[in-house]
Amino acid sequence: MYTHLMELYPGNEDVAKSFALRLLIHYAGDIAQPLHNIARVDNEYPDGDKGANSFELPYHYGADELHAVWDFVIYEWHTSIKRPFTQSTWDNFQPNVTSTYENNIGNVKTENYSPMDFTAWTLQDFEIAKETVYTGVT
User: Fold this and answer.
1) For residues 27 and 36, is the Cβ–Cβ distance under 8 A?
2) Low-confidence stretches of the chain (pLDDT beneath 70)
3) pLDDT attached to residue 77
4) pLDDT of residue 78
5) Strands, E, within the chain: which ranges?
6) Are 55 and 129 in contact, with CB atoms under 8 Å apart?
7) Which are the contacts of 38, defined by CB distance < 8 A and separation ≥ 6?
8) Rounded to an integer, what distance in angstroms lies between the CA atom of residue 41 and that of residue 114?
9) How far apart are CA 4 and CA 129, in angstroms?
10) Within 32-138, where are the H helices?
């Protein structure tokens, strides 16, 4: 990936590194999205619902399928973050991050988050998906 990014940004290693870091953060977030770890298979979806992308909901707040609802929660602030990210931007954004963290830390099984244990992360989120994703919407 790094070689490819250096080809996209020749002579600008800082930009390539920045892009690589954003991809790493994005992929780590994708692992934590429970619907990337499950697909509902039943009579209605015999081939699976594609991680709830095919599980339609009444259109509300920009989401018309279940996967989009979960993504919307993850990306709640993505359009309100001033870019480039500066100290001032962080000072305004940080209370939201802290509040979200403090309100949800009890739901995280920290023993599964040893450094870079992506398999453990995925397995934990698969369990979350099995237990919670479709609750109340079936």
Assistant:
1) no
2) 60-61, 73-86, 101, 104-116, 138
3) 53
4) 54
5) 56-60, 63-65
6) no
7) 51, 126, 129, 130, 133
8) 31
9) 34
10) 66-74, 87-104, 118-128
